[in-house]
Design goal:
Oligomer: single chain
Number of domains: 2
Strand content: 15-25%
Distance between the termini: 21 Å
Shape: flat
Number of strands: 4
Structural class: mainly beta
Low-confidence stretches: none
Number of helices: 1
Mean pLDDT: 76
Helix content: under 10%
Order of helices and strands: EEHEE
Radius of gyration: 16 Å
Largest sheet: 2 strands, antiparallel
């Protein structure tokens, strides 16, 4: 794990100089064992240091207007399959 205090969330960032950040979320733990039908996801790089501007050109899903914000129309809706947790 990347040192996060919540075992359901794990983030790993190997470099602060434009490197890669990855993470995982245990959806069953976050949502109390019952998965939602949908989740909403967006990713976007920001300039360093804290409070830096959003790099709209690298945002995913792609930006609709390039305004430096992640708007509701720029969030990916993912339908989760019916999953069964087997111990």
């Amino acid at each position: 794990m990347g040192g996060n205090q919540d075992p359901a969330l794990d983030v790993f960032a190997p470099a602060q100089n434009g490197g890669v950040i990855e993470g995982s979320i245990d959806l069953a733990a976050v949502f109390g064992g019952t998965l939602p039908a949908l989740i909403y996801v967006a990713t976007a790089p920001y300039a360093s240091p804290d409070g830096g501007t959003l790099y709209s050109a690298a945002q995913s899903p792609t930006t609709k207007n390039g305004d430096g914000n992640i708007d509701a129309t720029e969030i990916l809706k993912i339908s989760l399959p019916q999953l069964k947790v087997v111990p």
